[in-house]
Amino acid sequence: MRIRILGAAMSGALALSALALPAVAHADEGEGDTAITKVSVNGGQDIVLGTTVKKKITVTVTATDDSGISNGLLALWHGSNIEDLDGGLFPNENAGTCTASASDPTSSTCKLTITVDPRTDLYKNALAGTWKVAVQAVGNDGNYVFLEEYSHAKVKRAARLTVNAAPEPVKKGKTITVTGKLSRANWETHTYRGYSTQSVKLQFRKKGSDTYTDVKTVKTSSTGTLRATTKATVDGFYRFVFAGTGTTGTATTYGDFVDVR
Question: What CATH number corresponds to the domain at position 151?
Fold first, then answer.
């Protein structure tokens, strides 16, 4: 089987080497009975990155071939088509570590890792959102299958959230004001900036309880600030919870304790 290396240039400078693919493959390709049965990216969880810290994720490819599987590879890509990428996340290894199934030697799961660096891989905020998953498996007999868009994965900007409940202590029946700020990673400036007009829940947990309940939902200001009011009834903890969006991860604050007297 002839092999080629899929590559792309990002920002005219960053060359991305990737999967070993069939020489003529421009879309889904295959030869023989090799089949991909399952793919996992980061354990099914969103890939959430801040501004500077690298993150290593695990990916797996499960495939079958009557001769057994010799290799499985996976990459994430972003763009209108695989020949014109504006983002790519590729495995650290040239080959996956493949383990055959104890009950079916024709099936193996191949494990790889991908290290994502927000300073180089995520060079613009427009890369946040849905990425496509390209996957390839090769049988021991040389048969192969390549699927350029087997599934999808979410790559998101990290969010930060703060909380402060005041006054402390407070008289029973008086108003408590809970303030905070929601911000998210800006991959272009490597800073956190306020996230505007987003819905955030204020929750309360009574002292001695393990369960938070919703108090109300408020929206962030144009600069990401939050302000919510509620009546003081009993001692307890107040927190803000942000459910995230299609491009931004979730965030939950610690519980800020208020003593009611």
Answer: 2.60.40
